[in-house]
Amino acid sequence: MTPNFFKESPFKTLISFHKLIEALEEIAISNVDYRANYAKALLKEIKPFPEFRTGIENLDLIHENETLIQHLLADLFPTALTNNEIKAVTIPFQNFTFNYTERFKKIVNEAGVLFDMAIRDFDEHQFYVMSCTLILNEFYGQKIDFNKPLFYDIPNKKGIMNQYRILYNADFLEIIATDKSPKLSQDDIDLLMDNYDDLALWKEKFPVESWILKGFGIAILFDATTESSISKLKSNLLKPEREQIALQENFESIFRSIFKIADLRVGVIIYNAEEDKFVKPSLNDTSLTSFILSNTEEVTCKNALLGCSFENLLENNKVLSISNVEKFALEPGNQILGNHLLKQNIQSCIFAPIIKNGILLGVVELVSASPRDLNSINASKLDLILPYLIDTVERYNTDMQNQIEAIIQREYTAIHPSVYWKFRKEAQKYFQTQTRDYIFKEIVFKEVYPLYGQIDIKGSSNHRNETVKEDLKSQLKALIHIFKNQKSKTNLVLLEQRKFELQSLLKQLEFPLKADTEQQIQLYIENEIHPILRNTKTDSTGVILEKNYFESLDEKSGMFYHSRKKFDNAMSIINKKLASILDKKQAEAQKIYPHYYERFKTDGVEHNLYIGSSIAPSKPFNTLYLHNLRLWQLQTLCEMEMEHHHLKFSLPYELDVTSLILVFSSPISIRFRMDEKRFDVDGTYNARYEVVKKRIDKANIKGTKERITEKEKITIVYSHNNEETEYLNYIKFLQFKKILEPAIEQFEVEELQGVSGLRAIRVKVCNKNTEQNQKNYSYQDLLDELN
Prior knowledge:
Layout: E1 11-15, H1 18-28, H2 33-46, H3 51-54, H4 60-64, H5 66-72, E2 86-90, E3 97-98, H6 102-111, H7 124-139, E4 150-155, E5 161-169, E6 173-177, H8 186-193, H9 199-205, E7 211-215, E8 217-223, H10 225-238, H11 247-259, E9 265-272, E10 277-279, E11 282-283, E12 286-287, E13 298-300, H12 311-316, E14 320-322, H13 325-328, H14 335-342, E15 348-356, E16 359-368, H15 382-412, H16 417-433, E17 444-457, H17 460-484, H18 492-508, H19 517-535, H20 540-551, H21 563-589, E18 596-602, E19 604-611, H22 623-647, E20 657-663, E21 668-673, E22 678-681, H23 687-695, E23 713-718, H24 721-736, E24 740-748, E25 759-765, H25 770-773, H26 779-786
Parallel strand pairs: 1-7, 20-23
Antiparallel strand pairs: 2-3, 2-8, 4-5, 5-8, 6-7, 9-10, 9-16, 10-13, 11-12, 14-15, 15-16, 17-19, 17-20, 17-21, 18-19, 21-22, 23-25, 24-25
Helix pairs in contact: 1-2, 10-11, 10-15, 17-18, 17-20, 17-21, 21-22
Protein name: GAF domain-containing protein
C-alpha cells in the first residue's frame, strides 16, 4: 500500500527496531539454547542493515526486506494467529502500515487497488495536536486525554463498508528531544490548553520536526461494524431535518453494514391511528422509500394488499419475516402481497413494527433481491436499531403535528406572527394557573396606525351576470335545437309546449338578470326538460344531440358552465397571482418594523396593516417606520397593477382591475373578536375608519357619475392637507423613478353616509419599465432624493 504520511509533524519519524534488537541481544546471551541460537541467527541476518537499529528514513528498505522484517517481528506476529488477528506495523496516527497478518492482507486485497486506507474523520490539524499531546504527557508530566476512537472504513468484495476500530501498541516507540525542541513553561502549556483550534500556536510551541519519534507501533484492528453503524445511525437520526442529506442513501449504507447484505434496501411507513392507515413519511427534500406503498401515498390497514399477513404485525406487534417471497406468494391469502413484492424484485424481506408504549408508530421495511438473505434469524439484529428508530418516528410525528398546527394557524385563523407573542403570553398565564376558571383577557393593541389597500376586479358583478346569461342562453338554444330535431310521434303536443316555454325563457334573458332568474331556469330544466330527454325515444341524430348536450353539463350544477368557468378561472388566476406578490412583499416589509397584516381574496385582493409600538413593544417606534410602510404599500400596489397589465392578455376572460389606498393618520385600537376569531377596530371613535373602508371603492367623484377608481390607476383617498403633501412627495419620487406616469388628478369625493370631506389623488402606473417597478425604495431614499 502506498505510504500516505501527513505533510507536517512535530516529529521527525525514524522507523526503527532498536528495542526489539536489544531484546534479541539479551535472549542471545541467555541460558536457553534454542532461544539463544534463534536470536543469534536473526541478529546475524540483520547485521548488514544498521538502519534497523539507528532508524530507517528510506522506506524502500522496508519493502526490499519484507521477509527479513517478518522474521524479526515473528514473536509479535505469531503464525498460529495470522488468520485470526487483524494486525500490522504502523506509525501511530499516520496512514502508513506494513507487515500485515494474513487476515489483514485479505481485507486490504478485497478492498481493491483503488482503495486508499485513511483514518475516518482525522485531518492534519487533529494529527498535529494529538502528536503534540504525546510530547506534553511524556516530557511535561501532563495528563491530557485526547484519546478518541479511531476507525478505518474498508469495503469488502461485495462493496459493503466495514468499520474497524484501531488500537495502538506503542511499547516499541520512544520520543527524543532535539536542539530544535523549545522549553515550555506552565503558562505556555496553559495557553495551548485553551487554544486547540489555533494550529499556528501549536506549531510555534512544537516546530515541525523538532522532536524525534523513533521505533514502530503496532495497529490492532477489530471489526466494530455493527457498533459503529448503530452509532452513525443514531447520529444521523438525531440531526435536524435540514442536515439530513441523502437520508435514504445513508440509511441503506448503514443497514447494509449491519446485516452484511450488499443489495439491502430500506423503507419506512408511518401508521396513522386516526384513519387506520399507513402513510409515507417525507423528511426534508428526500422522501424515504416504501416497498409496501410503492407508488401510492397511503393504504388502509384493511386493504387487500396486506391481507392476513399483516394481522400478526398489527394486532400482536410481531415482526413479519419472509425468507422466500416466491414461495410465500403461492400460499392462499398471500398472493396479492407476494406478487406486489415480486414486481419490485424483492425475494426476501422483513417488516418490523416500530412501537412506543404499546402504540404502533410505523413499520421499518428491509428487502433484498436474494432469497433467504433476510430471515427470522437475522431479524433479531433489529433489536439493536429499533430504539433509535422509535425515538425518530416519535419525533417525526410530533414535528408533523406541530407543523400541521402551524399550517392551521397560518391558513385558517387570523393570528399573524407579529401579534402571536401576546396570544402566547396569555396562553402561558393560563397554563401556569392550571385552572379551568381562568378568565382570558381580551387581546387589544392600542395606538396603532392603520393602512388599507385593495385591488378590485372592475365590474365583477356585471361580468358575472353576463357570463351567467351567456351560459343560460347557450343551454336554452341547445335544448331548443334538440326539440326541433325530435322525430318522436308520441308526446308531440308536450314537446311543442316545452319548446315554446324554452323560447320564452330565452327572450327573458334579453333583459337584465333578476336575482332568481338563474334558479328558476335551472329548476325548470331539471324538472321539466331533462326527464323528457331521458324518457323519449328518438332517431340517431337526436341521440347524438342529446349525448353531446349531457356531456356539456357541469357535473356539480347540472348546467352549462362554459363562460362562467372562463370568468371564474380568470378571477382565480388574478387573485392568486396578486395575493402571492403581496405576501412575498409583505415578508420583506416586516423587516421595516414588525406589524400586523391580514389579506382577503374576494373579487380582488384587499389588505389591512396595523403598525405601532404596542405590536412590537421591545422595539422603539418612530413615525419614520409608518412613512416607510406607506411608501412600501404604494410601490407594492404599483407592482401588482403592472403584473396584472402583463397578465390580463393571457387570461381566459379579460378583466380589468382598479387600485385604492385609504390614508388614515389618527392612531386607533384593534381588538381580537373571540366570536369571529379575527381582529376588528375597537370603539365607536374608530368606527368612521371602518365605514369609509366599506363604502369608498364604490364612491364617485363629487358632482359627477364617475367612480373615483379607474383601471391601471391608483387612487389614494385622504382627509388632511399633511396627508396630501406626504403622498404627493411619494408620487413625485416614484414618477422620477419611472414607476408612475407624470399626470396627477386631484378631486373631492362625494359625501358618504355619515362621512364627508374626503379628497383623492389618482395617478397612472407606468407599465413599461418592469425592472424599475420591482425595485423597492425606502423612505430614506425619498429623503435623499429631496435633499
